[in-house]
Amino acid sequence: MEDCIFCKIINKELPSEIIYENDKIIVFKDVNPKAEIHLLIVPKKHIENINVITDEDKGLLSEMLIVAKKIAIDLKINLDTQGYKLIFNVGRGAGQTINHIHLHLLSGFSNQSLSEI
Ligand code: DGP
Q: Against a cut of 0.70, is the pTM above it?
């Protein structure tokens, strides 16, 4: 997608702090972190949001969760003391600003309201 910021990050046309990458998924730091750890898990396939996924995307979406888990383990996030949240914003009304599916992984909160993420 020509005008998609995340497609540009995926194609390395825009810089980002990449944490993990495989042939289908990239993970990078959110430029405007709302928690100590704030990562975006992004499929390389351009899909606007959860509302337009199809059966064909089942594998990709489960892989996003598997990657989230792997990263949480790699970062040694303790589930009892810290834990993490996984969030999809779907649609402008829910705060989606980038129209390319992304899963927020957040961990380490001060007093952040969920509605601000
Ligand atoms: P959402 O509001 O759910 O669409 O989340 C989009 C997130 O993407 C938001 O938290 C800020 C982040 N973001 C926007 N532009 C960039 C960028 O150019 N680089 C990075 N690393 N993150 C970005």
A: yes
